[in-house]
Amino acid sequence: MRPVHFAAARRTPIGKLRGALSCVRPDDLAATVIRGLVADVPALDPARVDDVYWGAANQAGEDNRNVARMAALLAGLPESVPGATVNRLCASGLEAVTTAARTIAAGEADIVLAGGSESMSRAPFVLPRPDEALPHRIETHDTRLGWRLVNPAMKELHGLLSMGETAEEVAGRYGVSRERQDEFALRSHQRAADARKNGHFDDELLPVTRPDGVLVDSDECIREDTSYEKLSRLKPVFREGGTVTAGNASPMNDGAAGLLLVSEEALNELGLESLGRYVAGASAGVHPDVMGIGPVPATRKALARADWTVADVQEAEFNEAFAAQALACVDQLGMDPELVNPSGGAIALGHPLGCSGARILTTLLHRMRRTGAERGLATMCVGVGQGSAVLVERH
Predict the structure, then answer these.
(1) 24 lies in which domain range?
(2) pLDDT for 136
(3) Could you tell me the CATH number of the domain that includes residue 39?
(4) How many C-alpha atoms does 225 have within 13 Å on its Cβ side?
(5) Closest by alpha carbon to 169, among 342, 324, 14?
């Protein structure tokens, strides 16, 4: 298999629900990142891009009809550059990267753009087509998050817990207390605020110009003034007597992130710097009720493929869908918590579903370049009971 390198990695700022980026279509967010990646590599002739793989979790609204191809055209790539949209729900952006890496490793491409985007602000309501001409009631589904138009057999076989309820399940089964969750959430905001203040996000951020001309150049959800006392006063949202609150869960967001992957031959030919090398990727399934623990088997599978151990990982990005599940995964993997999300995570930055996998990998690669770390992990849980992980290294 051929070596695969990351030649560029960028993301938009992450906007809050109905916030600064809510007036920007998801395909335009994706196009902004694609244009930025191409601009970062002046030696690259865009016509040489072999493919675009792009993740999107919703695909019920403006990200329909193959958003990868739409975004490539909107970004000004030549018509000859194809595109394919990838959906592994929360890990869609990460899945797009692994798909691109495997394509290059197999010798079927040399230069591929991969990433993901999501506008949860603009996610539509959907109506199922009625079986009768004049139905007595219309069933409406909000597509922002969770189940919709579900096969009734799924409830009988696996249940239909909401994402928050699955976090409660993980907290209960793995003994993650409310106190630990709130402390972790506070740490996420503090670390993200410090990272922003110290310019650690500058190299990965691409400002977005809105249709009204306003420039959005900073993440919108970081709470610099939050405290443990404020977080501890919030009431549980999903279960009476529960531990998961709005403060120790990730919010709903808008954003896009992407990476330029190249073969070693293309890297050398174009004279590019490698941000890192793709080592291995893996996904794994778990029961949907405990989807948040999915990163554990996925990470173990990726580590086995790379012939690494947990002790080999020097930098780690865990997508913080919920503090409960992130902490449970760190515990089960036996990882040093100090290595995890030193720049904060999704609780502070946000979780635009299809974008998040590409976002955490982008943040990881830029941080490894800054710190000199040689081996890194990006991992995340996935709705309906999955986990995904990617390992990268720098020399």
Answers:
(1) 4-123+251-393
(2) 72
(3) 3.40.47.10
(4) 0
(5) 324
